[in-house]
Write a structure and sequence with these properties.
This protein is α/β, with parallel strands linked by helices and 325 residues long. It is 34% helix and 26% strand. A hairpin with a 4-residue loop joins strand 13 and strand 14. It binds NADP nicotinamide-adenine-dinucleotide phosphate. The site of NADP nicotinamide-adenine-dinucleotide phosphate has 20 residues, from helix 1.
Length: 325
């Protein structure tokens, strides 16, 4: 029986570095190989994070017979292509968010994973953090009564560079797909699909949304207000208000270490958590456990959730006529 899962990392950018650091906190997992578009970059990354094998191309990485799963850390526009490359080579996949550029690409990825009988998951790490799991538990236990409002934002002042992944349309730029996905994700997780969506965006000189806001309306009486921006530092909090009280997931709420629950009867409680790493260890542990159990998707973040998430992103973008090639 397999006891250690061998991980490969595809792409050596910012997020790949954080993920590599956090794999050391994961039980039954080994960071086994890294693949980059250049050998020089692959070797640099391998030396920095003690990775036994470095490959100078993604095709060589996926051909390594000893790798069980590949973490895809390339820009959004390559997620579908790289996921299919890995699945075709017989590797399980954990692919960064957004899962792909649109719902059609996501269905192709899911079809391929099913055809190959391989594990596939979107790397929506926030889903696995203890703070978010505690929030779900509090809500389902009725701690804040019936939810009436949800507010969630994610914004930071990015240094403007039209070539940078964040602003570059050819690389899938725009705040919605990069960070707006988090407020949309938490709303989908806690409230499900909305009955109505209203949204608007400020499209910058590179043709992508620099700022956006969306309202999700639910026929059972809930409104969610969601926003993202690359143009200003915003509170980066999620607040869920119900008939009996509210939960505030504090800044930076997508990687929160604490939340506060305030009840109408005047009680206020802070709940705190410590992480061993940057927080990516929770998703990596979930994936490792799923693979050891022979699962093809995670019960906590099933593929149908990612399908719904991308369909929301598609719907919102469509309201602004923002299309990517
Ligand atoms: N979960 C999170 O918290 C989180 C945080 C940040 C980003 N992300 C996601 O992770 C993905 C990567 O983001 P990042 O900030 O790490 O990006 P990044 O620093 O630009 O790194 C992306 C890497 O992808 C590879 N790549 C392949 N083709 C490329 C191309 N044509 N242009 C540029 N890079 C290319 C490169 O690695 P090689 O040169 O080694 O091939 C590059 O280092 C994005 O989809 C983003 O949404 C997630």
């Amino acid at each position: 029986m397999k006891t250690t899962i061998h991980w490969g990392i595809l792409g050596t950018g910012r997020i790949a570095e954080k993920f590599a650091m956090d794999l050391q906190h994961v039980n039954n997992a080994q960071l086994y190989a890294v693949g980059s578009r250049t050998m020089e970059q692959a070797k640099m990354f391998a030396n920095k994070y003690n990775v036994p094998l470095a490959y100078g191309s993604y095709t060589e990485l996926v051909a390594d017979p000893n790798i069980d799963i590949i973490y895809i850390a390339s820009p959004h526009v390559f997620h579908a292509e790289h996921t299919l490359l890995c699945l075709d080579a017989g590797k399980a996949v954990l692919c960064e968010k957004p899962f792909a550029m649109n719902a059609s690409q996501v269905s192709t990825m899911i079809r391929k994973a099913k055809e190959k009988n391989l594990f596939l998951m979107e790397a929506l790490w926030t889903r696995f953090l203890p703070t978010i799991r505690k929030t779900e538990e509090l809500i389902s236990s009725g701690a804040i009564g019936n939810i009436i409002q949800l507010q969630s934002d994610f914004g930071f002042k990015a240094v403007y560079d039209p070539q940078w992944r964040l602003f570059n349309k050819q690389l899938g730029g725009g705040s919605l797909l990069d960070i707006g996905i988090y407020p949309i994700f938490i709303t989908l997780l806690l409230l499900g699909l909305p009955d109505e969506i209203l949204s608007s965006a400020i499209i910058g000189p590179t043709g992508v949304d620099e700022t956006m806001a969306a309202i999700f309306k639910y026929n059972n009486g809930i409104i969610a207000s969601l926003s993202s921006t690359f143009m200003a530092n915003t509170p980066c909090e999620t607040i869920i208000s119900g008939t009996e009280g509210s939960i505030r997931i504090h800044r930076m709420w997508h990687t929160p270490t604490y939340l506060t629950i305030s009840k109408n009867n005047g009680t206020v409680e802070d709940i705190r958590f410590n992480y061993a790493g940057n927080g990516y260890e929770y998703e990596a542990q979930e994936v490792t456990n799923c693979l050891l159990k022979g699962l093809k998707e995670s019960p906590l973040l099933p593929l149908h959730f990612s399908e719904k998430l991308i369909s929301l992103l598609d719907t919102i973008r469509k309201q602004w006529n923002l299309e990517y090639n």
